[in-house]
Amino acid sequence: MKLTTMTQVTIDGVMQGNGAATDDRRNGFERGGWALGKGDDETRTFIAQTYQRAEAFLFGRRTYELFAGSWGSIDQMRAHPIGVALNEAPKYVASTTLTAPRWEDTTVLRGDLAAAISELKAKPGGELQVHGSGILTRWLLENDLVDEMTLIAIPVILGQGARLFPETGPDLALDLVESRVDSKGVAIQVYRPAGRPQYATA
Q1: Which H/E stretch holds residue 81?
Q2: Among candidates 138, 118, 51, 121, which has minimal Cα distance to 89?
Q3: Could you tell me the CATH number of the domain that includes residue 85?
Q4: Backbone dihedral region of 17: left (phi > 0), alpha (psi from -120 to 50 degrees) or beta?
Q5: Environment class of 175 (CB within 10 Å of its CB; exposed 0-12, middle 13-18, buried 19+)
Q6: Number of domains, the chain
Q7: Any domain includes 70
Q8: How far apart, in whole angstroms, are the C-alpha atoms of residue 57 and residue 90?
Q9: How many whole angstroms from its chain centre is CA 87?
Q10: Which structural domain range is residue 121 located in?
Q11: Which of 10, 33, 83, 143 could cross-link with 71 by S-S, CB 3.0 to 4.6 Å?
Q12: Is 66 within a domain?
């Protein structure tokens, strides 16, 4: 399977609290819900179709519990095309603390995470998708496990909140696979990792 990630980010790179205002208040974050209602019908269709082509889903614990309590539990959300895709596919969650997952067809990955994910990637099939899960996404990138990364950039600057990419961290060159901007200014870029960047010499 190809491991792909999809992340909503602000122009200043924040990914925290994109959904409901109360979803993620860590570290005094007060500006949640910045992605709600953003994007046009084409962008919403693109996102739904992405979920629908997943062979399986991989989550960090925090995102898993958020999704389990919404897409996995609320009837109206379960009936949505995204909810149907999530509920019909196998789900994997990287966690050392989750012991009793409440969402059907969930496997908790413990121990050697890199080996477990490499084993999943070696299986035949389409995409092993990661949505949100910022800590996990950063770790996957650092360990060269991401095959394709989709960033959905919402035209807003928050000035606070956890960012997808840390202030200091590994460097990575990217090849642009696809790019589009919708009628409401939401930009979608699909990238493939391409090794380390080239830097100018003195």
Answers
A1: helix 81-88
A2: 51
A3: 3.40.430.10
A4: left
A5: exposed
A6: 1
A7: yes
A8: 6
A9: 17
A10: 2-22+39-184
A11: 83
A12: yes
